[in-house]
């Protein structure tokens, strides 16, 4: 089972979000300001971005964002009935993985990247609860570029909600029972927005 260390929990108690049935931390300044733009540019250029399709009402349509998946060799990942072979770690991604492991005490062996090109790119309500992520996954989610709204809603207590702004350089950590009890999304907006890259580091069993 994956867990944050006691050391991490004590150090970051002040940025733990007051959500029941959840363990969520928002570290606003994980990537320092001067590194954000070079890192974002390197990722925009070097990541093998793909336009995946989703099935909606029996039709194949473009996913409203670009994605890529990097992981340790042999960690195949299955979704929508398809199995994806991971790409080998880019140096920038390997460095972030090590930084996150040192910070949290959790291990990561894969990263899913999302590129939201503008305000009409989005991610619908879901939990990161695929069986290969294990019981209580630690998900480390780094944001670069345009700040976007991130919404939570409780899966069973329908009046419980939370909305955050994820600024460039921020790290959102979800652990403990969060995925059992909460869904999250990145909503669309009609405001004209610049691109945003999100990286979610995970451990696949
Ligand atoms: O872009 C984000 O901040 C959310 C990404 C996400 O929820 C996911 O990749 O599972
Ligand atoms: Fe997610």
Summarize the structure.
This is Alpha-ketoglutarate-dependent dioxygenase AlkB. This protein has 205 residues and is α+β, with helices and mostly antiparallel strands. It has four helices and 14 strands.
Can you describe what's shown?
This protein is an alpha+beta fold. It has one domain (6-202): Alpha-ketoglutarate-dependent dioxygenase AlkB-like (Jelly Rolls, Sandwich), CATH 2.60.120. Helices cover 19% and strands 36% of the residues. A 6-stranded antiparallel β-sheet has the order 1-12-9-14-7-4. A 4-stranded antiparallel β-sheet has the order 8-13-10-11. A hairpin with a 2-residue loop joins strand 2 (53-56) and strand 3. The longest helix is centred in the N-terminal third of the chain and has 14 residues, at 33-46. It is globular. The chain starts with 5 loop residues before the first helix and ends with a strand. Fe (ii) ion (FE2) binds next to loops.
